[in-house]
Design brief:
Blueprint (H helix, E strand, L loop, with lengths): L1 E2 L15 E2 L2 H16 L6 E6 L3 H11 L3 E7 L13 E5 L11 E9 L3 H10 L8 E10 L8 E6 L3 E2 L11 E2 L10
Parallel strand pairs: 2-9, 2-10, 3-4, 3-6, 6-7, 7-8
Antiparallel strand pairs: 1-5, 4-5
Helix pairs in contact: 1-2
Length: 185
């Protein structure tokens, strides 16, 4: 398990009601992300960080014509709204995962809350990487409290986000608008 000290990164939650990402906005954002990613060259592998990164990875892989595989990483201790990051990330790589990862790899998650998950997964993958492997990160959302910026993301958020593949919240939510532009560091 990789641990990033809690005081180094805290998610920002304004608690004005969670954002609700619709399928339409999600699909539009992923098409825009795929276009921006494709402009910089072909991707040899898309890796989805399950749970939340599984669906975006599948959709990006389809847009990019690249193979996809998944691994498990758990950062939140629960699925309750406004759960703060602990800094501890457990990564589990399934037996079916490739032994060797090479080329340009797109590590994909639903949200970059603190950056701890991307950091932990990259570290866990290191023994499988060939010297020429380039890992690049993408997420639908980036919490404004995250010191890490993925290579590509669609929305900066300052509250909890409920994605369309998740059960809806008990609270009233507000929709995320269509992304204005794809963000890069």
């Amino acid at each position: 398990m990789t641990h990033i000290p809690e005081h180094e990164a805290q998610r920002v939650f304004r608690r004005r009601n969670p954002y609700l990402l619709t399928w339409d906005a999600c699909e539009e954002a992923l098409a825009q992300l795929a276009s921006a990613i494709a402009e910089t060259g072909p991707v040899t592998q898309v890796i989805g960080i399950a749970g939340g990164g599984r669906t975006p990875a599948e959709m990006l892989a389809t847009h990019l014509g690249a193979p996809v595989c998944h691994l498990q990483a758990r950062h939140n201790t629960s699925d309750e709204l406004y759960t703060q990051a602990t800094g501890a990330v457990a990564v589990s790589i399934p037996d079916s995962f490739p032994d060797t990862v090479r080329g340009r790899v797109l590590l994909t998650d639903d949200i970059c809350g603190t950056g701890a998950t991307f950091t932990a997964v990259t570290s866990a993958l290191t023994p499988r990487l060939t010297p020429d492997t380039r890992i690049q990160t993408t997420a639908l959302c980036r919490n404004v409290g995250s010191p890490l910026r993925p290579r590509w993301w669609a929305w900066d958020v300052d509250d909890w986000v409920v994605f369309p593949w998740e059960p809806g919240p008990d609270a009233t939510g507000r929709p995320l608008p269509a992304p204005e532009r794809i963000r890069t560091p």
